Amino acid sequence: MNDKTGSTEAIRFVVAGGTGSIGRAVVRELCDRGHRVSVMVRPESLQSARTSFEDESVEVLAADFDDPPAITAVLGGEAPVIAISCLASRSGAPVDAQRVDYAANSHFLDAVQRAGARRFVLLSAICVQRPHLAFQHAKLRFESELAAAPIDYTIIRPTAFFKSLSGQVKRVAAGKPFLLFGDGTLTRCKPISDADLARFIVERATDPDAVGKVLPIGGPGPAISLKDQGAMLFALTGQPPRYRSISPRMFDVAARVLSLGAPFSGWFAEKAEYARIAKYYATQSMLLIDPDASWFSVAHCQYNR
Asked: Are strands 82-85 and 12-16 parallel, antiparallel or unpaired?
């Protein structure tokens, strides 16, 4: 378990959020390394999760994430050595953020500690460096709780994912313009693939030097702007470059208008938060702000092994 590049010893892991895009990649990486993997899901997701993992030797367990003793009970008599949480709210709305990004993670942490786990690895996000949104505050609240808990921990903060481009792939392939915010150079990121991020998470999970660390991680190469991403898609599809600009100010207007109805309707409050989320991603780069030079490269935002 002390191998910095991933132990060859079979370890029992329990993964929450294992049916999501990154969680699924983490489970696959663990299985490829010969570890014993239990995936924790909500009862209503049990059947679909079993179908998802039917080709791999994965134990799928179901428990209510609002009930830590129930989670502990279904883990059985053998304690998981390491817990990994890839739990994240899908919408980012305040209610969803509180329920998933904070509460579900908190209950999962409580449960695995009761079960005897020795390590907890959390998948967070780089954007919590500039917390303006409900889901970012919820993630930070849990990060603080985890750091104060009597368990070894590692927090992973990835920058951006290649899947963020997926919404525009069909547009560009169909000859439609690539959508930009402003001139397309307002933000930059270093996208990382699901598989590369999963490999990083799994390797850090058994690395003693990663205990108590908050680790940002990005993909290789220079940071790229939204316009750079569009150019890549045009080159891949063979389509002539065509762009359409959208002003980020439109999200400010939408948020203000929708906020007027927020005191009277949860629907308006949720939609106003979506507008704020859109403005955030349209104007904030997903890059490391204040790296620890002994662990990270400012230029590449990658873990220095």
From this structure: parallel
- How far is the C-alpha of 78 from the C-alpha of 262, rounded, in Å? 47
To which residue do tokens 């600009």 refer? Answer: 245
Please state, in angstroms and rounded to a whole number, the distance separating the CA atoms of residues 62 and 260.
40
Quote the pLDDT of residue 303: 38
Tens digit of each residue's pLDDT (9 = 90 or more) over 91-100: 999 999 999 9
For the stretch 24-79, pLDDT in tens is 999 999 999 999 999 999 999 999 999 988 877 899 999 999 999 999 999 988 88
> 10 Å Cβ neighbour count for 77?
6
Give a three-class secondary structure readout of the chain. Answer: CCCCCCCCCCCEEEEECCCCHHHHHHHHHHHHCCCEEEEEECHHHHHHHHHHCCCCCEEEEECCCCCHHHHHHHHCCCCCCEEEECCCCCCCCHHHHHHHHHHHHHHHHHHHHHHCCCEEEEECCHHHHCCCCHHHHHHHHHHHHHHHCCCEEEEEEECEEHHHHHHHHHHHHCCCCEEEECCCCCCEECEECHHHHHHHHHHHHCCHHHCCEEEEECCCCCCEEHHHHHHHHHHHHCCCCCEEEECCHHHHHHHHHHHCCCCCCHHHHHHHHHHHHHHHHHHCCECCCCCCCCCECCCCCCECC
pLDDT digits over 110-122, tens only? Answer: 999 999 999 999 9
Distances, alpha carbon 49 to alpha carbons 41, 56, 84, 296, in Å: 8, 11, 17, 36
Residues near 66 by beta carbon (within 8 Å), at least 6 away in sequence: 103, 104, 107
More confident residue, 185 or 80: 185
Hunting for tokens 């993997």 — which residue is that? 37
